[in-house]
Amino acid sequence: MYAPRILIADDEETICAVLQRVLEKDGYRVDICHDGDTAIKMASQTVYDLVLTDLKMPGSDGLEVLRKVAGGTTGAAVMLMTNYSTVETAVEAMRQGARDYIIKPFVHDDIRISVANTLRDTRLARENKLLKEELNRSINLEEFIGSCPKIMDVFKLVNKVAPTDSSVLVIGESGVGKELIARAIHRHSQRANEPFVPVNCGALPAELMESELFGHVKGAFSGAVSSKPGLFQEARGGAIFFDEIGELPPALQVKLLRVLQDQVIRPVGSSKSFKCDVRIITATNKKLDIEVENKTFREDLYYRINVLTIELPPLRERGQDIEELAVHFLKKHASRLNRNVESIQ
């Protein structure tokens, strides 16, 4: 199960140590630092789900941390810690994008509840954003239909590979349901409560693909008026699905290989890389081994994505499933058209 990563920034070492101990007991991965400049640097090198920062610190204060982190490419939420004398400043910070603020001295349970609520709200916002994007693309998610031996073997493989965290390659002709299988793998994995982000490698223009995948910083190219997280950041803790991976341009094959090897990404225009925890599932209708021989697909990337393989048979090899599929689609469209379905027995 994915454990959210939190950065605590406070110049009082005792507070950092106490908060680290309290939050780690709740299962979070916690890093600490003692000034704003270090917090900004750490947040630019590691993908954090939450940055919990003191308002008053040496160097960059909590507001500067908020501006740099909330406006950066990682998509981290920011919470502030403050005392009564600076509550007005904390309220103003929330107008600038802070998720919450905690008044010192605080009760441990208050911190735990605020952190849990903030992480939940940001996760739900991320999931809702992805859901809206999928609906806008009119993705139709039907359950996989079939009971022939070949499909039953596929289901058994899904159950076998889903609990692992290994990369999976789904192969099969166009239209056989590769994305449905990828979603089933994610749904039965330990990352099921985190995002599933699909990427159609054949639909994204090559010149935009790197920015879409890895994000970009402000000024990275003409039109980049602000920093933007990429799809890898959207998928953190979950899975990213590369449909038609064989269409991925050679330059991006190199970058994807690095993600698989090191779980490291670098936004376009940035000089810094940071960790991003995702599972990678890919699919193709091409024979990638032949693409490797023809030097159009990297051999090292092929072996990285081909750790576990699921092959989907075409409908012509699933004769006994045709009636079941026909009944399914008849009922589906009859319901949509408000028509009765007569027996076809």
Fold and architecture overview:
The two termini are 46 Å apart. It is built from 13 helices and 12 strands. The protein has a 5-stranded parallel β-sheet, sandwiched between helices. By secondary structure, the protein is α/β, with parallel strands linked by helices. Residues 135-142 have low confidence and may be disordered. The radius of gyration is 23 Å and the shape is elongated.
Provide the gyration radius in Å. Answer: 23 Å
CATH hierarchy: architecture of the largest domain:
3-Layer(aba) Sandwich
Model regions low in confidence, pLDDT < 50 over at least 5 residues: 135-142
Structural class, by secondary structure, is: alpha/beta
Strand ordering within the main sheet? 2-1-3-4-5
Quick one: CATH class of the largest domain?
A: Alpha Beta
Number of helices: 13
The percent of residues in helical segments reads 40-55%
Number of E-state strands = 12
Question: What is the fourth-level CATH superfamily of the largest domain?
Answer: P-loop containing nucleotide triphosphate hydrolases
Order of helices and strands: EHEHEHEHEHHEHEHHEHEEEHHEH
| Rounded mean pLDDT score | 84
How many domains in all?
Answer: 2
Characterize the overall form.
elongated
Report how far apart the termini are: 46 Å
Please report which band the strand proportion falls in: under 5%, 5-15%, 15-25%, 25-35%, 35-45% or over 45%.
15-25%
